[in-house]
From TrEMBL:
This is Arginine--tRNA ligase, cytoplasmic. Its EC number is 6.1.1.19. Residues 79-167 form the Arginyl tRNA synthetase N-terminal domain. Pfam families: Arg_tRNA_synt_N, DALR_1, tRNA-synt_1d. GO terms for cellular component: aminoacyl-tRNA synthetase multienzyme complex; cytosol. It comes from Perca fluviatilis (European perch). It catalyses: tRNA(Arg) + L-arginine + ATP = L-arginyl-tRNA(Arg) + AMP + diphosphate. It comes from the Eukaryota.
Length: 661
């Protein structure tokens, strides 16, 4: 059996079409040229009245279905209000094509819960057409045309034409009960799309540094968001595992560990190994020639050279995995080497379509609207990053069959990707109206001196050193708060990892990724303000309220199924609405890929909960004995709903909260 809401909506649309058709026929029969009474006109009027009656029953049924059987999914209240106001706006001004639709949460509670600001923009559009209408009049017409709905209690017009919207408390209460019974479920997805996220992307034989930290954390969080919303997600690690640098690395490996074929060379510090080989490459002419020969033999896939290449890659992979294990990252490696055999075909396709130009021996492609070309073949016949990125994009579009492709790299690569995407559109690989291909760029990590984050000696900060420093500082913080005296050793270690890695991730994600941000352990470990330390402590406290009142999960579940969530106190109402904004927050991030919005929401939810908890007793105790005398179960349910949403936010951000801290 299908979804009842979808069935109702389909039937509703069909009946509305029939009414429009009959109304048009009635109008034609009213034509003054046809003055004689028509039995057909009376018949049609009769049929039209019956249809309108049935239509109203269907509308009421649909409203009832939405209210009582919200399904397991959470309702996006903002989106539903946009549907309601969209219908009213179109009915109010049918002469406007694409009238503006603006609905947002109200910033001040005294003005209502949401606000529609479309009337002013509509007045401007009508003025441009020579029709001067006061925005308040337009707002009046919008309100008159609002269809019957399950959400709106009342509306008011304020100022020049703002429409303040007050929600029905009963529907908010029902939506909260639905959340408690079914858990945090994503809004329904129209179709399950395939998403490829390209992130992390370190280079073989080089250490991962803070730049990779940003790409890794942001990319992982984006993947978790898409997965929660029901998309089919492919996480790709486009590692730099091919190119001329491998010639010098292999030549150096052969000199330093001649028996590398039979026993794995003890390359403890690959970074030092890389620096040694680079020094020889720059200073020794014979070594340089041999390095170039090694590149040719590697590209010809000679077994000895492939083995040497694999050994070097494996040493790096083990180092990368240590970082991924700490940060709980799931990713599939698909480096530049994977696309080597595809590049020739890609270049040929551009040539066959007459899109390649010769420039001093290079083969280049100019994409429309772009000031710089792509170099697809160098003058020595070799391929470039441009070629491998085109081959990777082709594979993701045609083999992976991705509907959405996101590249998470630093903002310095924005122009490069802009040109690659433009070239792919030029050759007809994808239509941006159908397939979303996007570069999600990010700023650099700065030290507390506001300069690029470096060690004291001026070297790039190794990522593992940074994570180990985080662990040490987190333990110091926990001991300073004497948590080592109340937690078991196992609980203390869990709390240490949760705080250390949670704080590093949150410090990054809570900043707008487009901007640079200052890395400061002191700020990120501060348990005041918008930090992971504060939020993790807040979450643990909320979870402990039911535990300290001896209320188990089964009792809470039964209460959710049988008790109404009362929202009479202003702080209960404020918290209830804040909890239910979760789906609209996710929708905004889906549109702009800016994850700091989720961090801002999480902090707002935690502070709104604190206001509620300070004003509304959840558990009432005897002042003398400390014994529990009354449990306000509806408030315990609000605690549970808050904790459920916070837990899902942490999950999307890749942060692991703990039961005790």
């Amino acid at each position: 059996m299908g979804d009842p809401i979808t069935e109702y909506t389909t039937r509703l649309q069909q009946q509305e079409r029939e009414i429009r058709s009959l109304s048009a026929e009635i109008e034609s029969l009213k034509n003054p040229q046809n003055l004689s009474p028509s039995p057909r006109l009376d018949e049609l009027r009769d049929e039209n009245t019956k249809l309108k009656y049935r239509l109203n029953i269907l509308k009421r049924g649909l409203q009832e279905e939405r209210t009582t059987h919200c399904g397991k999914s959470m309702m996006n209240i903002n989106l539903r209000l946009q549907e309601i106001f969209g219908e009213a706006i179109r009915a109010s001004c049918p002469e406007l094509d694409n009238p503006p639709l603006s609905v947002a949460p109200n910033q001040q509670a005294k003005f209502g819960d949401y606000q529609c600001n479309s009337a002013m923009a509509m007045a401007q559009m009508l003025k441009a057409r020579g029709m001067k209408i006061n925005p308040r009049e337009i707002a009046e017409k919008i309100i008159q045309n609002l269809p019957d709905n399950e959400l709106i209690q009342k509306t008011e017009i304020a100022g020049p034409g703002f429409i303040n919207i007050h929600l029905k408390r009963t529907i908010v209460s029902k939506l909260l009960s639905n959340l408690l019974i079914n858990g945090v479920q994503p809004p329904p997805l129209p179709s399950r799309k395939r998403v490829v996220v390209d992130f992390s992307s370190p280079n073989i034989a080089k250490e991962m540094h803070v730049g990779h930290l940003r790409s890794t954390i942001i990319g992982e969080s984006m993947c978790r968001l898409f997965e929660f919303l029901g998309y089919d997600v492919v996480r790709l690690n486009h590692v730099g595992d091919w190119g001329t640098q491998f010639g010098m690395l292999i030549a150096h490996l052969q000199d330093k560990f001649p028996d590398y074929q039979t026993s794995s060379p003890p390359i403890g510090d690959l970074q030092a190994f890389y620096k040694e080989s680079k020094k020889r490459f720059d200073e020794e002419e014979d070594f340089k020639k041999r390095a170039y020969q090694c590149v040719v033999r590697l590209q010809s896939k000679e077994p000895d050279f492939i083995k040497a290449w694999n050994l070097i890659c494996d040493v790096s992979r083990r180092e990368f995995q240590k970082v991924y294990d700490c940060l709980d990252i799931q990713i599939v490696e698909r480096g530049e080497s994977f696309y080597q055999d595809m590049m020739t075909k890609v270049v040929k396709e551009f040539e066959d379509k007459g899109l390649v130009e010769l420039d001093e021996g290079r083969k280049i492609v100019f994409a429309p609207g772009q000031s710089i070309p792509l170099t697809v073949v160098k003058s020595d016949g070799g391929y470039t990053y441009d070629t491998s990125d085109l081959a990777a994009l082709h594979h993701r579009l045609f083999t992976e069959k991705a509907d959405i492709i996101i590249y998470v790299t630093d903002s310095g690569q924005a122009t490069h990707f802009q040109v690659v995407f433009a070239a792919a559109q030029l050759i007809g690989w994808y239509n941006p109206q159908v397939t979303r291909v996007e570069h999600a760029g990010f700023g650099v990590v700065l030290g507390e001196d506001k300069k690029k984050f470096k060690t004291r000696s001026g070297d790039t900060v190794r990522l593992m050193d940074l994570l180990e420093e985080g662990l040490k500082r987190a333990m110091d913080k926990l001991k300073e708060k004497e948590r080592d005296k109340v937690l078991t050793p196992e609980e203390l270690t869990k709390a240490q990892r949760s705080v250390a890695f949670g704080c590093i991730k949150y410090a990054d994600l809570s900043h707008n990724r487009i901007n640079d941000y200052v890395f400061s352990f002191d700020k990120m470990l501060d348990d005041r303000g918008n930090t992971a330390a504060y939020l993790l402590y807040a979450f643990t406290r909320i979870r402990s309220i039911a535990r300290l009142a001896n209320i188990d999960e089964a009792t809470l579940r039964k209460a959710a199924e049988t008790s109404e969530v009362l929202l009479d106190h202003e702080k209960e109402w404020k918290l209830g609405k804040c909890i239910l904004r979760f789906p609209e927050i996710l929708q905004k991030i889906l549109d702009d890929l800016l994850l700091h919005t989720l961090c801002d929401y999480l902090y707002e939810l935690a502070t709104t909960f604190t206001e509620f908890y300070d004003s509304c007793y959840c558990v009432e105790k005897d002042r003398q004995t400390g014994e529990v005398v009354k449990i306000n179960m509806w408030r315990m349910l609000l605690c549970e709903a808050t904790a459920s949403i916070m837990a899902k936010c942490f999950d999307i951000l890749g942060i692991n909260p703990v039961g005790r801290m």
